[in-house]
Design brief:
The protein is of the alpha+beta class and 654 residues long. Helices cover 23% and strands 29% of the residues. It holds the Pfam family Glyco_hydro_2_N.
């Protein structure tokens, strides 16, 4: 990523690195402690959304350090210098006409002033400030007092700000955020700053940020920011796992409460009609559900995505008052098993016919956008897709909620993308990666739609440190969640991949006739068959084709098919599909097209306003390939599901 560096690029990194070190010392690498329940309103919890227009200032000073040196968090941002309006949630890159902001690297500052209801200022109440995600490194102050630091985009973080807002008469309360999008060999994803010191070719202090992943490094406050309340004694976390037989299901639960050791817990599980089907009490136990409605994937059942609702009620005596906290968690009852040839959901073979996506759109970049989210789910269902991988980072909780509700199956991937440099396999990187998996599992562990964790995409898994790295990372992931299989996505040759021995499912990406033998569609059957047979012979594990695809520029036609035309993309799909159809009778358990929609990348000679491998355009219009895929996915669904035909045609017109 080329960046105009207004002097002091070295300072930029000098500034970031001590901060990362400070966090490690302060406990950042100790791991994800405490719960991270999605903020939901309840009789005991109130919520205030802070989306809208925030004040914004990019620190264009030499070294990008002026904000810290002058302590911009100490006073209203507008008093420190010129501010502009910035929407939240959104990436900041594409909001203005300024190319310097589009490609900016370093610290940017956000600020919002908020009025809190008087009743939130009582001292038996907890006020929490929560960010769904902000990219990449965040420092947050409330009324000038630092409340939280967080490393990494794509995952939530929060801070209890009760003592600040309740102790200070300052109204409104001022939230200041400093965000830095610099990537280092030890961040996830990794990156590096390269200084261009040849004065005959580059201006003074010129630097670029190198990345080894193929999407634009959008930055900003990407997901909702909320303030919510709980009583001072509160339900901090809930973990559920489920098992089932024909006639009865078991929901094992664990609840943690913070703020007191003297409390009681009661739980009731309701079905979708609101009937209580099981009750329990205490911090851990098992609920038995007779004749359960299982959570089924889309197109596998006439009522997919069935969720019960677990109402957890906590009562505690504190300072002679009775405190009550209520949190309701959606629960899907389903099981997942992997054999040497199959992926079983509720004991039935599941074939992934789906997509890889990105959080990406015009103007808002990676910012959450409800219209886009709902449109995408309508397109997925139109397509007959039953699954997607969250390539290449965890998606918004709001998206995951809809996966749970619609029965869209998810391979949940962490931001371990572009791990190519040898130094990114060292202990420092590994420790951070372990923490990121802790944060991801803490967030998504209760989601029925999530059936597998992916710890990385296309790492340099042939390097010798990759063996220890993936052994440790996958063992840690399994220890955190023994109920789900774990994978990472490989493009390394089967014979030299050092991470593959540790995964449960082999996920392979290949681009025959595109990056290899470009233009030669005729090599696909041979090469793809060999790919599957080699992997299976080596590991006897089921295989997902986790990426395959070709760029097409919408409206570009050629017959016979030539690269970049819509016809070529279609022809390439068909060649792949004929091999999938043979191998899915054996051990191939899924196919995920690259990509659902066109998306923005860094500029380069192989990218035309971004990556064009979408079957939909970036604006969500179908290319010809979308119709090929739609026909195929509905055909597979019809062959394998037990839905009555009338139900299928009803779904077709959703
Ligand atoms: C890949 C990567 C993906 C790229 C894609 C491509 O292997 O996993 O992030 O966008 O190829 O189009 O090159």
């Amino acid at each position: 990523m080329a960046a105009a560096a207004p002097g002091g690029a070295a300072g930029l990194c000098r500034l970031l690195l001590p901060l990362l070190a400070a966090v490690t010392a302060a406990g950042g690498s100790r791991g994800a402690t405490g719960g991270m329940l999605y903020p939901r309103e309840s009789p005991s919890r109130e919520l205030k959304e802070l989306g809208g227009v925030w004040s914004f200032r990019a620190d264009f000073s030499p070294g990008r350090a002026a904000g810290f040196e002058q302590r911009w968090y100490r006073r209203p941002l507008r008093e420190t210098g010129p501010v502009i309006d910035m929407p939240v949630p959104a990436s900041f890159n594409d909001i203005t006409q300024d190319p310097n902001l589009e490609n900016y690297i370093g610290w940017v500052w956000y600020e919002k002033e908020v009025l809190l209801p008087q009743r939130w200022l009582q001292d038996d109440l907890r006020v929490v400030l929560r960010f769904g995600s902000a990219h990449y490194y965040s420092v947050v102050w409330v009324n000038g007092v630092q409340v939280v630091e967080h490393e990494g985009g794509h995952l939530p973080f929060e801070a209890d700000i009760s003592s600040i807002v309740q102790g200070s008469p300052q109204i409104p309360c001022r939230i200041t955020v400093a965000l830095n999008n610099t990537l280092t060999p030890h961040t996830l994803p990794p990156g590096s700053i390269e200084y261009m010191n040849d004065r005959t070719r580059y201006p003074k202090n010129y630097f670029v940020q190198n990345i080894r992943f193929d999407f634009f490094n959008y930055a900003g406050i990407h997901r909702p920011v909320v303030l919510y309340t709980t009583p001072s004694v509160y339900i901090d976390d809930i973990t559920v796992t489920t098992t089932s037989s024909e006639s009865v299901a078991k929901v094992q639960y664990q609840v943690s409460v913070v703020g007191s050791t003297l409390y009681s817990l009661s739980l009731s599980l309701r079905d979708q009609e609101g009937r209580v089907v099981a009750t329990g009490d205490g911090p851990a136990g098992e609920l038995k559900v007779p004749n359960p409605n299982l959570w089924w994937p889309y197109l596998m059942h006439e009522n997919p995505g069935y969720r019960y609702f677990l109402e957890v009620k906590m009562q505690a005596q504190a300072n002679e008052a009775l405190l009550e906290d209520i949190y309701t968690l959606p629960v899907g009852i389903r099981t997942v098993h992997v054999t040497s040839t199959q992926f079983l959901i509720n004991g039935k073979p599941f074939y992934f016919h789906g997509v890889n996506k990105h959080e990406d759109a015009d103007i808002r970049g990676k910012g959450l956008d409800w219209a886009l989210i709902v449109k995408d789910f309508n397109l997925l269902r139109w397509l007959g897709a039953n699954s997607f991988r969250t390539s290449h980072y965890p998606y918004a909780e709001e998206i995951m909620d809809l996966c749970d509700a619609y029965g869209i199956v998810v391979i949940d991937e962490c931001p371990g993308v572009g791990i190519k440099m040898p130094e990114s396999f060292g202990n420092k990187s590994l420790q951070h990666h372990l923490v990121v998996m802790e944060e991801l599992i803490r967030r998504d562990k209760n989601r029925p739609s999530v059936v597998m964790w992916s710890v990385a995409n296309e790492p340099a898994s042939e390097l010798s440190p990759a063996a220890y790295y993936f052994k440790t990372l996958i063992a840690h992931t399994k220890a955190l969640d023994p109920t789900r299989p774990v994978t990472f996505v490989s493009d390394t040759n089967y014979a030299v991949d050092r991470g593959a021995p540790y995964v449960d499912v082999i996920c392979v990406n290949s681009y025959f006739s595109w990056y290899h033998d470009p233009g030669h569609l005729e090599v696909i059957p041979l090469q793809l068959t060999a790919q599957f047979e080699n992997w299976y012979k080596t590991y006897q594990k089921p295989i997902i084709q986790s990426e395959y695809g070709a760029d097409s520029v919408p409206g570009l036609h050629s017959d016979p098919p030539l690269m970049f035309s819509e016809e070529y993309q279609k022809a390439m799909l068909r060649e792949y599909h004929s091999v999938f159809d043979k191998k899915r009778k054996e051990y191939v358990i899924g196919e995920l097209i690259w990509n659902f929609a066109d998306f923005m990348t860094n500029q380069g000679t192989t990218r035309v306003l971004g990556n064009k491998k979408g079957i939909f355009t970036r604006q969500r219009q179908p290319k010809s390939a979308a119709f090929v895929l739609r026909e195929r996915y509905w055909k597979i669904a019809n062959e394998s599901s037990c839905l009555p035909p009338i139900m299928k045609s009803h779904i077709l017109f959703l």
